[in-house]
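Note on ligand handling. Small-molecule inputs were canonicalized before submission; formal charges were left as drawn, and no protonation-state enumeration was performed. Where a ligand contained multiple stereocentres, the stereochemistry in the source SMILES was retained. For copper (II) ion, this procedure yielded the string shown in the input block below.
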Amino acid sequence: MKRLATLSILAAIACSGFLSAQSKPEEAQPTGGIQLFITAEDGSPPSGLRLAKLGADEFANVEVIQAGKRFLKKEAYIPVGGKIAFINKDRVSHNVYCHSTAFKFNIGSQGPGDRHVVVFTTPGKYVVRCALHIDMRLVVVVK
Ligand SMILES: [Cu+2]
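Structure output:
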């Protein structure tokens, strides 16, 4: 996975022409997180490159939105200790859970607009579901 991510970044750089990476300490986050700004020569963001904010507790590594009574992602890949923020953008409640023998959680009733962060502490492949809507299914790979 790490190798794949590296290859993706290299491919994005190769496809985007000249890029420069620079940190902007004057805009450092008060939480102590690290942000890396990658821009094209003219300062515009390169297309096709996604950046994750890491290192600050309030930021999850991945966001999974629930809308239309489904997860808008089918799969999520995170490192061990990585976080997923489950965000309910529906007008109905959800109840997101995972009952794997290796890793369990249950958010409980999650009302419209609620956001819950789950830390995945154990490597593995997990199926996350909603107790209220049986068709909701998300695969989380932690490694
Ligand atoms: Cu649901």
